[in-house]
Amino acid sequence: CSRLHTKPSVSPTLLLSNMYQRPDMITPGVDAQGNPIDPRKIQDHFEDFYEDLFEELNKYGEIESLNVCDNLADHMVGNVYVQFREEEYAAKALKNLSGRYYAGRPIIVDFSPVTDFREATCR
Amino acid sequence: RSRSKSSKRVSGFDMAPPASAILAGAAAAAVTAVWKVRTKMHGVILLICTRKDQGNGQVPGATPAI
Questions:
Q1: Least CA distance to A21: which residue of chain B?
Q2: Are B14 and A101 inside 8 Å of each other by CB?
Q3: DSSP per-residue codes, A44-97
Q4: What is the tally of structural domains in chain A?
Q5: What CATH number does residue A108 fall under?
Q6: What pLDDT band is residue B47 in, cutting at 50, 70 and 90?
């Protein structure tokens, strides 16, 4: 997003920027080598990622909501929003995830102001 | 939704970048280091550039900036 969003100093919600990478993110429906990908494999890939993420994040406290942007457009692509029951769980997760890698890429994690995903729109 | 899994999922957490990426990063750092050394040979600008590394802002053998 090109807008300058405020980052709260504490929040029950974390944003893990661009963490999910679809197997067909370069060209929809085909892999990096140009071979067609079965849509079921894309779905399985997503579910594996979701489970992997949930298992890790659940270590830091009870999760209220876990949302993954699996869109292919640039806006918010691959962003993960995790809302914990308590702010302290989010703070613990932020501390533990900072500086780590996921699938060979650094994890970029910040607090997010979003607390209600039904109302979450870019303003 | 239930689904069958033929093999155990491998976690992506703490999976380090490939060695080629690390080497590319190291090469970039080396280029930066060379750039810093070269700037030492160009007078005023080099004093500013090397201030951070030298601590006291003085480059051995360099003419003080005017």
A1: B12
A2: yes
A3: HHHHHHHHHHHHHHGGGS-EEEEEE---SSSTTTT-EEEEESSHHHHHHHHHHH
A4: 1
A5: 3.30.70.330
A6: very low
Summarised one tens digit per residue, pLDDT across range B48-65 is 444 344 444 444 555 554
The ipTM, to two decimals, is: 0.79
Nearest to A102 among B12, B18, B21 (CB): B12
3-state secondary structure B3-66: CCCCCCCCCCECCCCCHHHHHHHHHHHHHHHHHHHHHCCCCHHHHHHHHHHHCCCCCCCCCCCC
**B17 to A101: CB separation less than 8 angstroms, yes or no:** yes
| Distance between A85 CA and the closest CA of chain B, angstroms | 23
The pLDDT of residue A19 is 94
Q: Note whether B3 contacts A51, CB cutoff 8 Å.
A: no
Flag whether A28 is in a domain.
Answer: yes
pLDDT of residue A31: 87
Across the interface, whether the CB atoms of A103 and B9 are under 8 A apart is answered no
Alpha-carbon distance values, B53 to A2, A32, B40, B47, B62 (Å)? 35, 42, 11, 10, 15
- List the domain range (segments joined by +) for residue A68: 13-112
